[in-house]
Amino acid sequence: MDQTNENHFDVIVIGAGAAGLGAARTLHDSGLNVITLEARDRIGGRIYTSRDNTGRPVELGAEMLHTAQNPLLQVLADAGVATVDVGGTRTLSPNFAVKLTHLLDTLDEPVHSQSASDFVRQVPGSAERELLAEAFDAQLGREALRRTSAIDAIQELRLELEHGEFMSTFNSRVPEGLDQIATVLAAGLQVHTSTRVERVEHHEKGVSILATVNGQSQGFHASRVVVALPLGVLKNNDVQFEPRLPVGTVQAMHDIINLDIVKILFTFSGDVWNLPEDIEYRAEGPLSAIWNSTFAGASTKETVVVAWAVGDKARSLLETNIETAMRQALEQVRIQLGDSGLDPVFAGFHSWATDPYARGAYSHLPPGAAPDARQRLAAPIADRIFWAGEATATWRSRTVHGAYLSGLRAAAEISASLTSAERKAFQLSV
What we know:
The chain is α/β, with parallel strands linked by helices. The chain folds into three domains: 8-47 and 179-257 and 366-428, FAD/NAD(P)-binding domain (3-Layer(bba) Sandwich), CATH 3.50.50.60; 50-70 and 171-177 and 259-351, Polyamine Oxidase, Chain A, domain 2, CATH 3.90.660.10; 96-163, no CATH class. It is 32% helix and 23% strand. Strands 1, 2, 8, 9, 10, 11, 12 and 20 form an eight-stranded mixed sheet that branches. Helix 1 (18-29) packs parallel to helix 13 (400-417), helix 3 (96-106) crosses helix 5 (126-137) and helix 4 runs antiparallel to helix 5 (126-137).
């Protein structure tokens, strides 16, 4: 690649989602000259906050911050951005953690190709089977258990026990919009949007990046690169690598799959959510999904109602004409809220599968996938290419803060890889 007239940096970060911005923020704050390249015309990645025609933030992508230990809660607090505790979407049975710890200690480890559903079926004792099914069901946003790796699901449960907190038992919202996370992380950083990376070359002297900007090719050069792109983009070979990626990296990409997720949203004038205080209800019928409303304490001038479908339910929706799905969804909301004349002032439908810069929602390990696929995908290449993104996160993958933490991990790996000469050249403390 011709490096004439290229832009030179210490580190290039590809992708301005939570992972890329987390890496860029950390590296920039350590004194490195960092640029972030983003193909979209906005930052945030799969955090996608739209402002409907009332000006209210509507989350077409990620919607909540999960767990009380979420590090992004402190990031937002430090920046003066308010968050609201909206409680949990699930209440676990009494002594759940103690009973689960004992159960996992007595069970044989699942085999490589075993699904979570098959593993549950082989557990002796109905109470034990019910407990394990409850534990798997609490792992927010998974595929059906028949399409879930038992090894991966068990490992996640062990990590949750180790950290003392389970998903979906505590959630927070950002009233100003979840995109405030991206805004806070990107403050003061060099971020080039509408810059689509086409090619990444790594060599003895560093890395060279070829991107398309306003229809024109532009080159960038750096010592290191962080690739923080969605799994679907990598699997589709939207970015070419030279030399070709190691077999282990490519195999890891294909071991991990993308979850299918669909969201349907309606904004209504006034406070129309008259259901009990539970944050959600599960609807069946023509549109099988999880519905939830605006959070407690939100403005009563409008109500945002969201349907969230994952896995088989999402695929069923994607096979349906969008207009039909929206009509069925509105009918269901009217029935549930007891108002046949309820009309939205805003209606939205979103699927990451149709987005060329995502090509799918978050990641998932199916039966037969290598248990260490995420670790292998995250492995640096020649101390030049480093990886971030929720698909590389071994803890809290499928979440915004899992993505963010993967960015911090990639930044730490880069820092550890720098030689004394490089630190001196980058004007860092040796």
